[in-house]
């Protein structure tokens, strides 16, 4: 029987799972010293959130003694529990990366309690002391890279009107919009960012409509925070606008229109996790970092980026790498004129106030609700 087109979660359903499980003896795979499982909510070649993880998984495959197994398009339901159990029981996975936000609770938490000898790592920063100790969360301060993208966008825009296609007005998304805008204002104090929220993480039709609407209103540089930026990038380039990417390097989609972008750097982090896992201390249950920690990075500059923009962006990037930099500091007003950070106050990346950000800064045209 050919199992090549059957998903892992289906192998644990019905007699097919029982037959295969008996044949393999439900033993851990012996093909490698360490078997690692990656689970994606969408396609692993989406030029977005899922591809960023898949690129890192591909890097791990090149390491000796490592076997990587993957499954894509797994819903944020009990389907992911079946996938995790398959990876553990049929493939012998000892480290599992359920990468999507909705996989964490109750699904990953349930599996972590059921399999205490397996390590579970979730992307999103949701872990607390109440959760299983063999589970953890990690995430990156990608607003640092968005801040640098904003600098480049501010120098490049001829109209001073920037556009942001966003999924939902949650704190992480608002941080990215605000950081991008504050970066742009370093280059052009009069720059504005118009934001359109689509309502969900992957809505290609609405993302295309939002992109076209922004360009129709005079926006000439666009970026986004959605799972798959491909729609925004291709539509913007086709309309003659410039593009700043998100998640991964989008330059292949818009070679002439691409300026730079905010990327995840999981391919640098995951090998570190393997070393931590082998050490006495293990992987921290809650792990965060930005440019300095190599968890995020900035895309290479495109051909339309001026020397002035490159120089300024490189200087700011160097500051982040050397000693860190507070993006959010007072006096800072929101886009309704209210002071949200008082003069003399800085909000560092670990400041809990940033974790519950609910405002858009002055210069952003849009609403959070």
TrEMBL record:
GO cellular component, one term: plasma membrane
One Pfam family in the UniProt entry: Bmp
Keyword set includes Zinc: no
CDD domains hit by this protein: PBP1_BMP-like (cd19963)
InterPro entries (UniProt xref): ABC-Purine-Binding, PnrA-like, TAT_signal
Alphabetically ordered keywords of this record: Signal
PROSITE patterns: TAT (PS51318)
Signal peptide interval: 1-31
Name the UniProt record assigns to this protein: Nucleoside-binding protein
Organism of derivation: Bradyrhizobium erythrophlei
